[in-house]
Design a protein that fits this description.
The chain is an alpha/beta fold. The chain is built from 14 helices and 17 strands. Strand 1, helix 1 and strand 2 form a beta-alpha-beta unit. Helix 7 crosses helix 11. It is elongated.
Length: 387
């Protein structure tokens, strides 16, 4: 396969914490293993000081303009936020000018270069579209969102939509290729911006070796109801506990993890068959799900593409999840049961149905998920989309 050199431009980068950063990080971590291309990340300076200290610094014209980590070069552009989560480059900074100068040298020394930007809204994506066009480079935009930004006031939200409509409708027209990380995201682009071909590219998953032989289910009481993840209000664990109490069943409800709602949930579940295991590491959770017959429940009101649901289905268990955002795209099989968020009646119906039909429902999604979220397959898919 012909080698492709990628310059990936991102508004933020780990250790800065946000969901989309992990997608950007996945791409460069796994690309270095594929031998299909060279790679250069251009990132803002937010939370990168420790990286500069811990990794190999490289000097360009007497300025530290990048660091090298795992054979990937990260250019760090001095930046500030004009509003929260909206970074802008410090174009007047001497180091920024050195980075632009280095990029010109990089273009001269490398061939078959692709520019990748991530997520509209951000000014860096707009700037690097101009960079790609000026240097006659193929530009691929990966869109991560399936809605407009919701800001702190109606006026600010409206202004952000106008900004979207002015800049990104035009840019979506001009991109050489648009990739969406979900069908919902693709539909949003086609409905709100432009009716053109948009390819769906699912983020791959480190599919763990969690499939083990379980003991045959002897009786329904062997089935555990399980919630796993942070105990925060948007997860609606209180709705799960209230539904469980109303069912008045003997199957144990297991809650794994910790966070701000811990004490409230303990009080709510008092005198009922609810067991709190609190924070456990990933290895414990995988082992637990592999050895137990579980119905894992995700009542969350806010999700993107929950990788936890994918892993739970791979553990030969049944998953009940609220039908929010992109959860329905994970699997069309019967071991993923969806209910309307906040609808306790539906949730209780799904729990009873899953207990009564456990053996018939479990283990249906493994083949589909292994294909859809395979790292090896999706690396090849992405290569074919940008080559």
């Amino acid at each position: 396969m012909e080698k492709v050199n990628i310059i990936q431009f991102m508004p933020y980068f780990p250790p800065h914490k946000w969901w989309v950063e992990t997608v950007w990080q996945d791409i460069w971590i796994n690309w270095k293993k594929s031998d299909l291309w060279g790679f250069l990340n251009v990132i803002t300076s937010f939370e990168q000081e420790d990286n500069l200290e811990k990794n190999e610094k490289i000097i360009f014209e007497n300025e530290i303009i990048w660091y090298k980590k795992d054979y990937i070069i990260n250019l760090v552009i001095p930046s500030f936020e004009i509003i929260n989560n909206f970074p802008i480059y410090k174009f007047w900074d001497k180091k920024t000018r050195f980075i632009f100068k280095y990029l010109k040298l990089y273009l001269q020394e490398n061939k078959n270069i692709r520019v990748i930007t991530h997520t509209r809204f951000f000014l860096p994506s707009l700037f690097w579209w101009i960079f790609a066009r000026k240097n006659n480079l193929k530009w691929i935009h990966i869109e991560h969102w399936s809605d407009y930004v919701k800001l702190s006031s109606k006026l600010k939200t409206r202004l952000s939509i106008i900004y979207d409509k002015i800049f990104w409708k035009w840019i979506f027209k001009k991109a050489d290729n648009i990739l969406a990380i979900s069908e919902a995201c693709k539909n949003f682009i086609n409905k709100e911006f432009i009716d053109r071909d948009v390819n769906v590219f699912y983020r791959w998953l480190d599919i763990p070796e969690i499939i083990k032989e379980k003991e045959d289910l002897k009786e329904k009481l062997d089935i555990k109801l399980v919630f796993i993840w942070r105990l925060v209000s948007l997860k609606w664990v209180d709705y799960l506990i209230e539904s469980y109490k109303e069912l008045n069943i003997k199957n144990e409800l297991i809650i794994i993890w910790d966070w701000e709602e811990k004490q409230n949930l303990e009080k709510l579940s008092k005198w009922f068959n609810v067991k709190f295991l609190w924070f456990k590491n990933r290895e414990f959770i995988i082992d637990y799900l592999s050895k137990k017959n579980c119905i894992v429940i995700n009542p969350s009101y806010s999700e993107w593409m929950p990788t936890t649901v994918i892993e739970w289905l791979l553990s030969k268990n049944i998953v009940i999840a609220s039908d929010v955002w992109w959860t329905k795209e994970i699997s069309i099989n019967s071991d993923l049961l969806l209910f309307e968020a906040w609808n306790k009646k539906q949730l209780k119906q799904k729990i009873v149905f899953s207990i009564d039909n456990y053996d018939d429902l479990k283990w249906k999604s493994y083949i589909e998920i292994n294909t859809k979220f395979s790292r090896e397959q999706n690396i090849i898919n992405l290569y074919n989309l940008i080559k």
